[in-house]
Amino acid sequence: MSAATTSPRALPRLSRRQFIGASASAGLVVAFHIPLAGTALAQEAAANEVNAWVVVKPDDTIIIRIARSEMGQGTLTGLAQLVAEELDADWAKVTTEYPTPGQNLARKRVWGNFGTGGSQGIRQSQDYVRKGGATARMMLVQAAADGWKVPAAECTAAKSVITHTPSGRKTSYGKVALAAAKVAPPETVALKDPKDWKLAGKRLARLDTIDKVTGKQIYGSDLVFPGMLNAAIKDCPVFGGKLKSFDAAAIEKRPGIKKVVRVGDSAVAVVADTWWRAKSALEILPVVWDNGPNEKVSSESIKAFLKEGLDAPEAILGNSNGDARAVLAGSARKLEAVYSYPYQNHATMETMNATAKWTPERCEVWTPTQNGEAAFAACVAAAGLPSAQCDVYKIHLGGGFGRRGQSDYVTQAVLIAKEMPGTPIKLIWSREEDMLHGRYHPITQCKMRAALDEQGNVTALHMRISGQSILAGLAPQSIVNGKDPVVFQGLNPPAPEASIGYSFPNLLIDHAMRNPHVPPGFWRGVNLNQNTIYLESFIDEIAFATKQDPLALRRKLMVNHPKHLAVLNAAAERAGWGKPLPAGRFLGLAQCMGFGSYVAGCAEVSVNAEGKLTVHRIVAATDSGHAVNPQQIEAQVEGSFVYGLSAALYGECTVKDGRMEQENFNTYQVLKMDEMPKVETIIMPSGGFWGGVGEPTIAVAAPAVLNAIFAATGKRIRDLPLKNHDLKKA
């Protein structure tokens, strides 16, 4: 959050003239059109109007407008690097800003996808943003060549300067920008070979670091507008319940209180001159809830519901080869284990918030969101106005992790603002509201069964997952023939996305869908997290049962998976697998493939006589195909382990009487600084594909530590979090 709490400032917003125009008086000289190559909208978009991706100003400042959201992962810097690389721009003069989803819609979606999640920001945008930079460079060079009356082939560009090689004449991008705006964009562009990159692939400082460090960066909670009021909200704590009644008269005469309003079917909000007054009044507001049909649901009843699915006759197939059932039925030697994974909250440091202003003519929302178009759709629906009369202005996120892909808080802000037309209303959820009304990491259980021959080889593996489907809760239209493909992350057949890293002669992976009433959501790393725990822990169990070295067994099973094996070998070698360790230290391994990248981790831990766990070091290897900014990759890997270890050690949301029991960080603990291990990151891009880096390494944190704990104590932990277990040596 911003440190500038003593001098609040309004977030500056571009006017429509500034956003679109190309006049020198407005400060913008040229906005280059960049059609989205390969899309049906490209030609229509080109005919519509100029698409302001790359803006060149008279002082050679370059503004790159990027639709993806920035939530600490460095996406804006990485995408700007790719644009600036192809543009041959002076990096010192590059800045970024967000377009709006309203403008995107008006221009036939020429900015493309506004969603940011699934580690897709760079890997799904890299092609068209690079082509955009190359297009802009070619137009600038052509404009300079036309002015000099020389062939463009005789001109080169570097650091925002164009040079006519034969004569040595030079000019800057800013000086030819107006002329370049009149140049027809080339129909095709050639992109640089990554081996020739000068900006991309380098450890450049992020563009937003200084503003964050100095407190200049504005977050949603910092916004201040003239005449703005503040709102606090309380929703029915039982999922699926409703608001029955409230007594506004009990609080409406308190200082600063402006209004008490019903919000939808299940919530009530208090609007006041300050947020603290709104929250304080809301806490004592007499409210009667209709808890609905779920008020007796508990963690115990949910677990029983899922347990039934482990042996249910009906399940949806995810991946298979051979006949695992038959081999298991006829095998003399079998190994079986049941694992489980709890509900977890995103717990972003900045709680959900949005500022809305509604009039009968227009509705505007300022909010941190991972999906600008979804927030825009929510704004339009709640406002009851045509889309042309609405817009959403994105702000950097104080944490997203998947939670801000949903727009429930945007809907609430607009509904409250409609009750007070013309007045900006800033809605901020309290920490308790944020914890009680999340979109939780889905709860699952998993039964692992392996058939073994006399030599200890795995002849069959059956992995039965029982539990919640995220798509069933968020996008049921995406479920085809009962299958939620997200359930099988990291377990798919060999493919560019989330494939299993082992070969078994007989394999069956299936899912018995069981959906409790708790709303699920995409939680950073999603289902790759628990699937990697289940598979990697069980591989270790097989190794122990068959007296094989865990690394050796994995290598044997990964002969046909060279990229999986390469990162595993790199992590194991750097960690010192098979070599002497300090007294009391033990290692554990894990690997997976998710979000387009191959990752592996090796954890070094110790457990003292009292059962206290210390994670001393984690070595992580990542092959994301290309590495746009190695420093950002290292930061993302380190952050992944903060998140993954927090989940493994402490992360658990429990249900009682239909609602979550954890309401703040005193009952939902996260990793502390003194618990953070040393992280060593190995970046080993093999080229030829684009993978994500924000999420995949989360998945190897827990299983690597769990396998190391077993090596240290002989205790096999099959359900998290670790806080629920006594780790004293068996």
Can you tag this structure with a few keywords?
alpha+beta, 7-stranded mixed sheet, 730 residues, globular, 5-stranded mixed sheet
Write a structural description.
With 730 residues, the protein is an alpha+beta fold. Helices cover 28% and strands 21% of the residues. The chain has 19 helices and 27 strands. The protein has a 7-stranded mixed beta sheet with strand order 10-11-8-18-15-16-17. It has a 5-stranded mixed beta sheet with strand order 13-21-20-19-14, with helices on both faces. Strand 6 and strand 7 form a beta hairpin. Helix 3 packs parallel to helix 5, helix 5 packs across helix 6 and helix 15 runs parallel beside helix 19. The longest helix is centred in the N-terminal third of the chain and has 23 residues. It is globular, with a radius of gyration of 27 Å. The N terminus is likely disordered.
How far from one another are the termini? Answer: 45 Å
Low-confidence regions: 1-51
State which percent range the strand residues make up. 15-25%
- Gyration radius over CA: 27 Å
**Average pLDDT score:** 92
Q: Enumerate how many helices there are, as a single number.
A: 19
Structural class: alpha+beta
Strand order of the largest sheet: 10-11-8-18-15-16-17
Shape: globular
DSSP helix fraction: 25-40%
Number of strands: 27
Biggest pleated sheet: 7 strands, mixed
